Amino acid sequence: MRVPYRENTRGFSRLRGLSAAALGALIAAGAARAASVTLTPNAGSGRTGEVVILKGSGFPPGAPFTVSIGNSPVQPPAVEPDKAGNIPETFLVISAPLPEGRHAALLKSDAREFRFPESFRVRRTATLDPPVGDGRQGATWRTDHAIAKGGWTGMVFAMNGYGFPAGAFIAADSIKVGKAGTVHDPVRVAADGVLPSTTVIVAGKLSPGRYDISFRDGSSQVVLASVYQVAPWAATEALRQKAAALTLETARAAIKNVVAAGGDLLPAADIKGLSDSIKTAEEDIRKGNFETADDTGRSVIEQSGVLIEQARDLRKDKLKGLADVISSGFDTVQPEGAPAARQGAATVEKGRKKLAEALDFIEKGQLDNAKATLKDANELLKKARAEAGVKGQEENIRW
Question: Which CATH architecture has domain 125-232?
């Protein structure tokens, strides 16, 4: 979905006095340059760790823009348009949960701010742990003192969720499993839309089959269709479901690490493939295919490790290339081995030492240190050029 932007501007009084033709031309010129972004997908649960792809055009080049979706920052925190003002496909990880509703994407630099209203829609999602029961009326150690402390029998599950209306309230004992009542504490949704984990005890017996979960969160009636399964073998399946869920949480964290390590370098299709695998595994869990979901999650973890290593190799190559560019710049000021005749020769020498330090960091795999040291070397190159009076186009380095 491509979304028009609203830019914070001042000085509209300057438009007074313009002819209709001139004003029309100005508006047309502005429209031709209008920035736009696309978020893929443009809807989700709003949970922490959710991955979206941002792509944009029509932005002023040459400066990074910090990005936020709703009130949530993202990782990586900034994107940078190319010379044509385009932002290539960039994987972003939502860093804080969002409540239900439509949220704006905000891109902001030191000089400009672009707001894209209703770019991302958050819908309610809820999970049950376990999502399957054995049909017996539930009980916990709190309701039946014959049960060991911390234990439970029958149909008992924990429900949590994301993307709920901020501050919504679910009254105590109001959740229904099919037509069966339940016992649970009252639930208050947080301002960020997170439904806190709540223990729900099914207060009746149920025959095998699939059941809806229903409740009211404020003024809205919520129905989660066919999310709870009743089966005689549920006790064993509950353990498998829990193992699969833990594996998927680890896999989601692994994808987040991939994006942080190389979201700007790796092929977009590779990261999208990981995200698609997670969605497939989540669907398998909903269908009760827990072992398949667990296998998929483990595969994602393994592939993520491979991609992180590839990203490190690509980043090493990129940093080495930047070191070559800076080194060539020093040669234009003071060629290697030539007499120190120019004014900037001492600064060049300092810069070359910084380059050597950066290359050493690269070999050791300390890439953040290497990048910072290369930036220091580049600043010394600018200083050496100024001292020596060397004029020419500076290298446009994209860090």
Answer: Sandwich (2.60)
